[in-house]
Structure formats: C-alpha cells, structure tokens
Write a structure and sequence with these properties.
The chain crosses the membrane at residues 16-35. Pfam families: B12D (PF06522). By secondary structure, the protein is mainly alpha-helical. It has three helices and no strands.
C-alpha cells in the first residue's frame, strides 16, 4: 500500500524519483552497516557459549584505529577556549 502510494506520487511528480532512490539507497546502506557491526568478533549474541568474546581475539587483531592516537595527541596539545 505504501509502495503503491509512492509510485503514484512519483508518476505525478517525477522530481521525487531521485529522492526516493537516494532514501532507499541510504536506508539499505545503513542496514548493511548495522549487519556488519553486529557480526563483528567483539559482539556476542549467546552469552552461554561465549561469555567473553574479546578474550578470543587474535593478538594481531586491530580493534583500534591508528588515527585514534593522532586525535588524542591533537586534543591533548590543543589550547582550550
């Protein structure tokens, strides 16, 4: 029903077609990013089988961005207002 209404609006106002496209593209990208975050090695969905998943990470796993150190250094040396 909502899809039919959107199609009718798009037929009457063709300028809405790019807006519908980019809204759907953004929602799809946000959904895929949420799935990507939820499947990370530091997330647990079953606490009975793996109560502490962060202890099973590989020692070479990079869970912190290398830019974090730069940002912390810049903030530490920045003059306050």
């Amino acid at each position: 029903m909502i899809f039919r209404t959107a199609v009718e609006h798009a037929k009457r106002h063709p300028g809405l077609i790019p807006q519908f496209f980019f809204i759907c593209l953004g929602m799809g990208g946000a959904g895929l990013y949420l799935i990507r975050l939820a499947r990370g090695p530091h997330v647990t969905w079953n606490k009975t089988q793996n109560p502490e998943p962060w202890n099973k990470l590989d020692p070479t796993y990079q869970y912190k961005s290398p830019l974090d150190d730069i940002f912390i250094e810049v903030i530490a040396h920045a003059d306050g207002p």
